[in-house]
Design brief:
- This protein has 574 residues and is mostly helical.
- The protein contains 31 helices and no strands.
- It has helices spanning 2-28, 49-61, 65-79, 87-93, 97-110, 115-127, 131-139, 148-160, 164-172, 181-194, 198-208, 215-227, 231-244, 249-259, 270-288, 293-306, 311-323, 327-334, 343-357, 362-375, 380-392, 396-408, 414-430, 434-447, 452-464, 469-482, 487-499, 503-516, 521-533, 537-549, 562-571.
- Helix 14 (249-259) packs antiparallel against helix 19 (343-357), helix 26 runs antiparallel to helix 27 (487-499) and helix 30 packs antiparallel against helix 31 (562-571).
- The longest helix is centred in the first third of the chain and has 27 residues, at 2-28.
Length: 574
């Protein structure tokens, strides 16, 4: 009897489960169309708030702010919820000023402590010449204590209201702030310059030069001295900055344009300086929120709204889209940078590299680089980019040609010269020209003794060719001091022990390297070799078998292939 009751209960529960399951299928069945992919472009979002959520999050992940803006508008209409907290920021990032203003006001009502929409509304008033309203908005922020950012923006509003001393007094309260001393000194210098306080401007700019500045800061200072007919001083400042940043293509281009009198001296206006202050803030936002490109774009749009000729901001905006594979947006933006701007050199190089990296429009990219070499024969990066491209194509003759042409240039840039020697040595090594390989590696280290990549490569070259085991060990040890957890350096260090027949020490290094890079065929092969040498033959065979499964190609695996490994498995080592 009891069993019958149990059976009836189980049957009843089973039927209930089936009904629930059928109900769920009916509820979840699409009513309009079948979606074959999860891509947000395939979702019918006009009547599906959950699709809108998914679409918005997907667009957010892809940093596709234009699509995100569209989805977000519809999502807010249907849900009444700003679920990503981005409505206002997205409007600014996509240059929708009218709606950005409306959304900023809503955000302030909802969250009066959020300073970002206040900054934007203040910016709008400033742009329209309503300086008192702009200042009042900043001054009435609910946060009692002014932040550095608010002080900076209030300062420029005070300058606009001809309260210059009050503006500089406000900013001087931040002059000992180590986090922003460069920005404070530069903005104070610009305020002094606009106020015709030349001696104070000179003092501030000179002090700013002792801090960490970006190239646009350097241009502002150089421009100041050019206006004062002190061209040599401007050149000296740029020369010193270029020495510190030897790989800075744009610094070189600016320096050359000033030397050749092609640089057009700027008479920076109030709007230009406010744009520069916002540009500084955009860089701070990028550091504070490295993945929130919408906030970064918001500030860059504000910058370019005030000063469309601040081409460095245009380049930075283009880079956001380039890094997120938005090729059409990227190309449209870089085309706005004129050939006459010193920024255009790096702009063209970046564009050519982008094309070569993605293997699209390669002829266009190569033509750009070759034409730039004719115009700027001393820019070593041009030879490096072309050499690297041909090396990737296994066209060693052309790669050698461009590396060699770069090395020949009489340019005081030891860091890049060292890099070109190193890159050429790899080609010679691939061609089995050992003497030339070693000559170039020596030259590279002579020019840059601290390049641990070269130290490691040189060490491994000496060891695998049995040229100088002692020196190879020394170089491997030096490379390890720079990056002791680098699996490739650990592998080389282990190989140095192996070559000295210190197999136990070699095993420790190989095992350590393998723990960091567990699927690298070369490291695993070396570990197998070391196991064999100490009599751990079954473990050696096991490692060699694993190495076979992780082989990629002979170039990446240093000539290691399945035949070599199978021979080891069957016959061991001599």
């Amino acid at each position: 009897m009891q069993n019958n009751k149990v059976k009836k209960y189980l049957i009843k529960m089973f039927l209930i489960f089936i009904l629930i399951f059928i109900g769920l299928i009916i509820i979840m069945k699409p009513t309009k169309k079948n979606v074959n992919t999860i891509g947000y472009e395939n979702i019918d979002f006009t009547d599906n708030k959950y699709g809108l959520y998914l679409s918005s999050f997907h667009a957010e992940i892809d940093n596709d702010y234009f699509k995100l803006n569209n989805f977000y508008d519809e999502a807010i209409k249907q849900t009444g919820s700003d679920f990503l907290g981005k409505s206002f920021i997205l409007k600014v990032a996509s240059n929708d000023e009218e709606n950005a203003i409306k959304e900023a006001k809503k955000e302030i009502e909802k969250n009066p402590h959020n300073i970002i929409p206040v900054i934007y509304l203040s910016f709008i008033e400033f742009k329209n010449g309503n300086y008192q309203q702009s200042y009042d908005l900043l001054n009435n922020i609910k946060n009692k204590k002014d932040t550095f950012i608010i002080k900076l923006l209030k300062g420029w509003n005070l300058i606009a209201l001809n309260e210059n001393d009050k503006a500089m007094d406000l900013l001087e309260t931040e002059i000992n702030n180590p986090a922003f001393d460069n920005i404070i000194l530069m903005n104070l210098g610009a305020m002094a310059e606009l106020s015709n306080q030349d001696s104070y401007a000179d003092e501030l700019y000179q002090e700013a030069l002792t801090t960490k500045l970006n190239l646009y800061d350097i241009e502002v200072i150089a421009n100041y001295y050019l206006k004062k007919n002190q061209k040599q001083k401007a050149i000296d400042i740029l020369n010193e900055y270029y020495t510190k940043t030897q790989d800075s293509i744009s610094t070189y281009a600016l320096l050359e344009s000033i030397k050749s009198n092609k640089y057009k001296v700027q008479n920076f206006t109030l709007n230009d300086y406010m744009a520069k202050a916002l540009f500084d803030l955009s860089n701070i936002m990028l550091i504070l929120f490295p993945k929130n490109f919408d906030i970064y774009l918001m500030y860059l749009n504000m910058v370019l709204d005030l000063n469309p000729n601040l081409y460095m901001a245009q380049l930075m905006k283009a880079e956001v889209y380039k890094n997120n594979n938005k090729f059409d947006y990227y190309k449209d933006m870089i085309n706005l940078i004129p050939d006459t701007s010193y920024i255009n050199l790096i702009n063209k190089i970046n564009y050519a590299q982008y094309l070569l990296k993605r293997d699209i429009h390669t002829n266009e990219a190569i033509d750009i680089l070759k034409n730039l070499i004719k115009e700027y024969p001393d820019v070593l990066q041009l030879y490096q980019v072309l050499g690297n491209y041909y090396k990737k194509q296994d066209d060693y003759d052309k790669a050698l040609f461009y590396y060699t042409e770069g090395i020949k240039r009489e340019v005081n840039n030891p860091t890049l010269k060292a890099e070109l020697y190193y890159l050429r040595s790899i080609i010679y090594d691939n061609l089995n020209k050992k003497d030339k390989t070693q000559e170039d590696l020596k030259e590279s280290l002579k020019l840059n003794t601290k390049n641990h990549i070269v130290l490691n490569y040189y060490a491994y070259f000496l060891l695998r060719n049995d040229i100088d085991i002692k020196e190879g060990f020394s170089f491997a040890e030096r490379a390890m001091t720079y990056e002791p957890l680098n699996p490739y350096y650990l592998d080389t260090y282990g190989y140095a022990y192996y070559k000295q027949e210190k197999y136990d020490d070699a095993i420790k290094m190989f095992e350590y390297a393998k723990s960091i890079k567990p699927k690298n065929a070369v490291i695993i092969n070396h570990l197998g070799d070391a196991y064999w040498k100490v009599g751990r033959k079954e473990e050696a065979k096991y490692e060699w078998k694993k190495a076979i499964s992780y082989l990629t190609n002979e170039k990446e695996d240093e000539g290691l292939n399945e035949t070599i490994l199978q021979n080891k498995i069957h016959f061991g080592l001599n």
